[in-house]
UniProtKB/TrEMBL annotation:
<dbReference type="GO" id="GO:0004332">
    <property type="term" value="F:fructose-bisphosphate aldolase activity"/>
</dbReference>
<dbReference type="Pfam" id="PF01116">
    <property type="entry name" value="F_bP_aldolase"/>
</dbReference>
<feature type="binding site">
    <location>
        <position position="84"/>
    </location>
    <ligand>
        <name>Zn(2+) 1</name>
    </ligand>
</feature>
<feature type="binding site">
    <location>
        <position position="106"/>
    </location>
    <ligand>
        <name>Zn(2+) 2</name>
    </ligand>
</feature>
<keyword id="KW-0479">Metal-binding</keyword>
<dbReference type="GO" id="GO:0006096">
    <property type="term" value="P:glycolytic process"/>
</dbReference>
<comment type="function">
    <text>Catalyzes the aldol condensation of dihydroxyacetone phosphate (DHAP or glycerone-phosphate) with glyceraldehyde 3-phosphate (G3P) to form fructose 1,6-bisphosphate (FBP) in gluconeogenesis and the reverse reaction in glycolysis.</text>
</comment>
<keyword id="KW-0324">Glycolysis</keyword>
<keyword id="KW-0862">Zinc</keyword>
<comment type="pathway">
    <text>Carbohydrate degradation; glycolysis; D-glyceraldehyde 3-phosphate and glycerone phosphate from D-glucose: step 4/4.</text>
</comment>
<dbReference type="GO" id="GO:0008270">
    <property type="term" value="F:zinc ion binding"/>
</dbReference>
<dbReference type="InterPro" id="IPR013785">
    <property type="entry name" value="Aldolase_TIM"/>
</dbReference>
<feature type="binding site">
    <location>
        <position position="182"/>
    </location>
    <ligand>
        <name>Zn(2+) 1</name>
    </ligand>
</feature>
<comment type="similarity">
    <text>Belongs to the class II fructose-bisphosphate aldolase family.</text>
</comment>
<dbReference type="InterPro" id="IPR050246">
    <property type="entry name" value="Class_II_FBP_aldolase"/>
</dbReference>
<protein>
    <recommendedName>
        <fullName>Fructose-bisphosphate aldolase</fullName>
        <ecNumber>4.1.2.13</ecNumber>
    </recommendedName>
</protein>
<feature type="binding site">
    <location>
        <position position="136"/>
    </location>
    <ligand>
        <name>Zn(2+) 2</name>
    </ligand>
</feature>
Length: 288
């Protein structure tokens, strides 16, 4: 078994847990977004986890290698994570062929028994290669680009039994279900009472540093909600639309009229600034 002591993702998250701040785990769909994210991390002296979806690996096979090169060349701690890997054979292909630091083994679309068993087997296979493992306990409803939609499956809150079962399955990072959803909450973010912060705090206490907590479903979060999640134990903060919507809006408004090179340059700069803002909010700026 390869040691996890030098695993980049876990080193980043353990540092955040000790320092009581959150780290962005940011989705990139292309090289321009990857560039903006990395530039933000360098500018803010912040750790950062770069996330790719399995669907992106199939669309742009070289993007993982570009991300891995950025991880190795950066002057701040970065890591490469594959988010929501839901196909067992594709997971095995990823860990055998790509330079990744961690994988979310997402078997939440199976029943509880199969979810745990598949997670346990895949966690061992990942650990044998020195790759850290994240898993989702309970079930977070909804879907977004790159994730299978679970809208036809009932959302399940993470229970104390779930926590114990997933820790026993050998994972390193737990993504609990506390009322968070994949997809959009609306312009004001989660409704009052939708996120169960008390449940998150209880999970964090129960874990007692055995694993780390990831928070999924941050679309439309206002800063105060994100900070409250961090206060209650969330360390790895998965972000997609929260950062990328400024990029998308800029392209929608300017793609038809602006020269391509200028469009790319300004788009990267806008995404970098948005990422820097959220690094400040999450408390990771200056921690690298």
């Amino acid at each position: 078994m390869a040691p996890l002591t030098d695993n980049r993702t876990l080193l980043i998250l353990k540092g955040a847990a000790q320092g009581k701040y959150g780290v962005l785990a940011a989705i990139a769909y292309n090289i321009e977004q990857l560039t903006g994210l990395v530039r933000a991390a360098e500018a803010k002296r912040s750790p950062l986890i770069i996330q790719l979806f399995p669907s992106t690996l199939k669309q742009l096979p070289t993007l993982a290698h570009a991300a891995a090169a950025a991880v190795k060349s950066a002057s701040v701690p970065l890591s490469l994570h594959i988010d929501h890997a839901q196909d067992v054979e594709h997971i095995r292909e990823i860990i055998a062929t790509l330079p990744v630091d961690s994988v979310m083994v997402d078997m939440s679309h199976f029943g509880e028994k199969d979810n745990l068993e598949k997670t346990r087997i895949l966690a061992k296979e990942c650990h044998d290669r020195g790759i850290a493992v994240e898993a989702e306990s309970g079930r977070i409803e909804g879907g977004e680009d790159g994730i299978a939609d679970t809208g036809d499956l009932e959302a399940l809150f993470t229970s104390p039994e779930d926590v114990n079962n997933f820790v026993a399955a050998g994972i390193d990072i737990l993504a609990p279900s506390i009322g968070n959803i994949h997809g959009d909450y609306g312009p004001s973010g989660p409704k009052p009472g939708q996120l169960h912060f008390d449940r998150l705090a209880s999970i964090n206490k129960q874990i007692n540093n055995r694993v780390l907590i990831a928070l999924h479903g941050t679309n439309d979060f206002p800063p105060e909600v994100m900070m409250k999640c961090i206060e209650n134990g969330a360390i790895k903060l998965n972000v997609n639309k929260l950062l990328l919507e400024v990029w998308n809006e800029f392209l929608r408004k300017n793609a038809a009229a602006m020269p391509l090179v200028k469009l790319v340059d300004q788009g990267i700069e806008i995404l970098q600034k948005e990422t820097e803002k959220w690094m400040d909010i999450c408390g990771s700026s200056g921690k690298a």
